[in-house]
Amino acid sequence: MDICAAVEADVHIRPGETALIPAGIIIELPPGYEAQIRPRSGLALKHSVGILNSPGTIDSDYRGEVKIILTNFGKTDFVVRKGDRIAQMIVARYERVRWNEVPDVAATERGAGGFGHTGVKAERFNG
């Protein structure tokens, strides 16, 4: 769903600045669910405005007003007006996990290859 700004007056976000924008809603999620706050692609493309901690998470036990952390990554001021669509919210089920400490993990072809390794085949040397 779209999240709209519920500001009393226009909020000017200068380049490089961040503002906490109220959404005017409080949600009650059942246990096992979270809400994810995501940026709007149009704001990113047209104005270089995004959400600093994206995706933001709203836990099921939170009962305060939903607020959006908007950051202006652009070069000009960005104005937030009452009713502007500023973010998107997705409600998703999640699973709680229990961690078991083990001495080793199973080997995979990728192994410990980090950033940039997914989908890239490494040259194999015989020798």
Please provide a written account of the structure.
Helices cover 6% and strands 37% of the residues. It is flat, with a radius of gyration of 20 Å. It has a four-stranded antiparallel β-sheet, with no helix packed on it. Strands 3-7-5 form a three-stranded antiparallel β-sheet. Strands 2-8 form a two-stranded antiparallel ribbon. The longest helix has 7 residues. The chain is mainly beta. The protein is built from one helix and nine strands. The protein has a single domain, classed as Deoxyuridine 5'-Triphosphate Nucleotidohydrolase, Chain A (Distorted Sandwich), CATH 2.70.40.10.
CATH class: Mainly Beta
CATH superfamily: Deoxyuridine triphosphatase (dUTPase)
Number of strands: 9
Order of SSEs: EEEEHEEEEE
The largest sheet is: 4 strands, antiparallel
Structural class by SSE content: mainly beta
Distance N terminus to C terminus?
A: 56 Å
Kindly identify the CATH topology. Answer: Deoxyuridine 5'-Triphosphate Nucleotidohydrolase, Chain A
Question: What oligomerization state is this entry in?
Answer: single chain
Number of helices: 1
